């Protein structure tokens, strides 16, 4: 949709030091135009500048860099066999030079500068006043979105509101309070002008809207409340902001879907529950570089295990490309998702069955029954005969319950109980499966859902707990839990009481509802539970995690390229540098 990313580059790189000391071109092709201040003072320039800023969201949300920074090293996931050991386990090699942090930092500032150009120049463009106001509101929403990522990772960051067109080698590190003041004001300004919701007249998929801005504003109030920059009214402001959005959902045109399984159904990313989604297209020329780096939506790869190294299985479009960056902790699969009678989300979140797809007869012949047959083998089992008889038969099954060695030996497929799988193949988050891409190894062409109404309810519950409203917190949580019973469970048996509405329970509910949706590290830091919960549930990270890991280290490219007063990593915790 936002195709100008292939036609326009941002003139000048924001804070040359932030971008590694030079002007990194986003594109290999020769740009057809430059987003100069003069161009941004025209109606065409404003529109193209906005297109570029929207395209910039692809370089953060859906990228591998953001994914590993918010998903790894939490209570939900441990390192997959191809994952980042240093980041997931907080080893001594997790340093400011870690490339994922460099990319998130660089891309956020690059696109903040694009937003600054629009905000600064659009009011001088010859275009209807209403269009000017809306363009500025969209740019402020996007600027707040990029800054929200920066402050949640690094707290004190450079705050720039001026469009920079030449290389700059100095950077003042502003306080978190200053950054939050800008973010909150940007969101308030955007809410006052933007259409009410994602389904409002004239709002295309992936466009800024007031509902998304209200959701982010509530989240930012909760975040600030957890920091030294907290203001006395933050939790109450969060509660009222989120409550009003939920109360006005019918007017805004948003709703919880009846079936949790439909939220991430391929092709349904513009459903009534989605507040904001980063857009991608089947025309690869208008996505990223098509090499699974920045700009590409690689979420379809991140959770995929090495199924193709199991008998009778080959890599396929249906089952995906096995990047296996992370696998769920046993706490997630065995405790959080233990209830599966009335709560249907386990089966709608995880792939647990793989069907044989090899066309090579020898693959089936090699996986043969032993002689003698094990006790409990199927009646049609023959010593030396195929255990998996043909393509389409069950090849791998993970029932999510304990299984004995005898059961595994007697199964006519590979059977993994809930303590038998490992970091090469595990229950696989399937929210991002993509069968529309051109090649099985390609990145996803699906839009990436960033915020949805179910999280608004859970954030409202968090704010209710923080303002001593336990019954209201339970009510918001119960709205999500009742939906989770559809279609076969009993909604009444899913409800909790006010006494159950604690931060610990809420964090478990967030896992059941939002697993793998690029928020967890932020959530644990915001609720002050990262260290505690990682030590309880992530054995790999337990020996190494320290207080300083509640922040990400300022990237090395920033440290190396700033002239004059230096950025440093010791503002909050010594010895990060």
What does the model show?
- The protein has 577 residues and is mostly helical.
- It has a domain at 299-429.
- Helix content is 38%, strand content 6%.
- It is built from 21 helices and eleven strands.
- It has helices spanning 37-40, 43-56, 64-71, 85-89, 99-121, 129-154, 176-193, 210-225, 234-247, 249-252, 299-302, 330-336, 345-349, 361-366, 405-410, 453-466, 470-484, 503-514, 520-526, 530-537, 556-561, and strands at residues 8-10, 33-35, 77-79, 274-278, 326-328, 350-351, 353-355, 394-397, 414-415, 428-429, 448-452.
- Strands 7-8-9 form a three-stranded mixed beta sheet. The protein has a two-stranded parallel sheet with strand order 1-2.
- Strand 8, helix 15 and strand 9 (414-415) form a beta-alpha-beta unit.
- Helix 2 (43-56) runs antiparallel to helix 5 (99-121).
- The chain is globular.
- The protein starts with 7 loop residues before the first strand and ends in a 16-residue tail after the last helix.
Short description:
With 577 residues, the chain is mainly alpha-helical. It has a domain of 131 residues. The chain contains 21 helices and eleven strands.
List the helices and strands and how they pair.
Blueprint: E1 8-10, E2 33-35, H1 37-40, H2 43-56, H3 64-71, E3 77-79, H4 85-89, H5 99-121, H6 129-154, H7 176-193, H8 210-225, H9 234-247, H10 249-252, E4 274-278, H11 299-302, E5 326-328, H12 330-336, H13 345-349, E6 350-351, E7 353-355, H14 361-366, E8 394-397, H15 405-410, E9 414-415, E10 428-429, E11 448-452, H16 453-466, H17 470-484, H18 503-514, H19 520-526, H20 530-537, H21 556-561
Parallel strand pairs: 1-2, 8-9
Antiparallel strand pairs: 3-5, 4-11, 6-10, 7-8
Keywords: Cell outer membrane, Membrane, Signal
InterPro entries: SusD-like_N, SusD_RagB_dom, TPR-like_helical_dom_sf
Subcellular location: Cell outer membrane
């Amino acid at each position: 949709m936002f195709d100008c990313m292939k036609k326009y580059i941002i003139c000048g790189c924001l804070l040359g030091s932030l971008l590694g000391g030079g002007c990194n071109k986003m594109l290999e092709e020769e740009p057809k135009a430059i987003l100069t201040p003069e161009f941004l003072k025209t109606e065409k320039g404003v529109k193209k500048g906005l297109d570029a800023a929207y395209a910039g969201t692809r370089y953060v949300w859906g990228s591998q860099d953001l994914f590993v920074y918010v998903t790894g090293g939490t209570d939900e996931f441990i390192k997959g066999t191809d994952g980042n050991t240093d980041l997931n386990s907080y080893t001594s090699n997790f340093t400011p030079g870690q490339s994922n942090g460099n990319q998130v930092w660089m891309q956020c500032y690059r696109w903040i500068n694009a937003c600054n150009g629009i905000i600064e120049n659009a009011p001088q463009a010859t275009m209807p006043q209403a269009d000017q106001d809306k363009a500025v509101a969209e740019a402020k929403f996007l600027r707040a979105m990029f800054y929200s990522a920066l402050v949640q990772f690094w707290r004190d960051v450079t705050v720039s509101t001026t469009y920079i067109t030449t290389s700059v080698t100095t950077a003042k590190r502003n306080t978190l309070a200053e950054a939050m003041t800008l973010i909150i004001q940007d969101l308030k300004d955007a809410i006052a002008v933007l259409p009410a919701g994602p389904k409002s007249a004239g709002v295309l998929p992936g466009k800024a809207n007031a509902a998304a801005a209200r959701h982010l504003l509530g989240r930012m109030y909760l975040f600030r409340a957890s920091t030294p920059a907290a203001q006395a009214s933050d939790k109450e402001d969060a509660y009222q902001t989120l409550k009003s959005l939920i109360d006005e959902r019918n007017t805004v045109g948003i709703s919880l879907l009846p079936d949790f399984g439909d939220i991430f159904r391929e092709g349904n990313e513009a459903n009534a529950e989605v507040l904001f989604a980063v857009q991608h297209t089947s025309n690869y020329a208008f996505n990223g570089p098509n090499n699974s780096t920045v700009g590409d939506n690689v979420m379809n790869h991140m959770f995929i295990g090495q199924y193709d190294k199991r008998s009778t299985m080959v890599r396929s479009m249906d089952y995906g490309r096995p990047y296996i960056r992370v696998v769920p902790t046993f706490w997630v699969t065995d405790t959080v998702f233990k209830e599966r009678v009335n709560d249907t989300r386990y089966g709608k979140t995880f792939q647990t069955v793989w069907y044989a797809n090899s066309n090579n007869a020898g693959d089936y012949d090699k996986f043969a029954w032993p002689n003698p047959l094990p006790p409990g083998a199927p009646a049609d089992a023959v010593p030396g005969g195929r255990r998996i008889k043909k393509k389409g038969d069950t090849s791998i099954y993970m029932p999510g319950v304990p299984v004995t060695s005898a059961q595994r030996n007697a199964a006519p497929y590979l059977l993994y109980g809930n303590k038998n799988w490992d970091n090469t193949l595990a229950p696989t988050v399937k929210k991002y499966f993509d069968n529309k891409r051109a090649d099985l190894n390609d990145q996803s062409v699906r839009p990436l859902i960033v915020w949805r109404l179910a999280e608004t309810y859970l954030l409202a519950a968090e704010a209710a707990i923080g303002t001593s409203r336990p019954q209201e917190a339970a009510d918001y949580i119960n709205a999500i839990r009742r939906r989770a019973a559809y279609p076969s469970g009993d909604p009444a048996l899913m409800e909790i009481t006010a006494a159950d509405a604690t931060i610990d329970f809420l964090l478990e509910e967030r896992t059941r509802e939002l697993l793998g949706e690029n928020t967890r590290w932020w959530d644990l830091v915001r609720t002050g539970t990262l260290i505690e919960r990682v030590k309880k549930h992530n054995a790999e990270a337990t020996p190494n995690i320290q207080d300083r890991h509640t922040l990400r280290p300022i990237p090395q490219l920033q440290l190396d390229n700033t002239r004059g007063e230096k950025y440093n990593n010791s503002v909050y915790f010594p010895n990060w540098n």
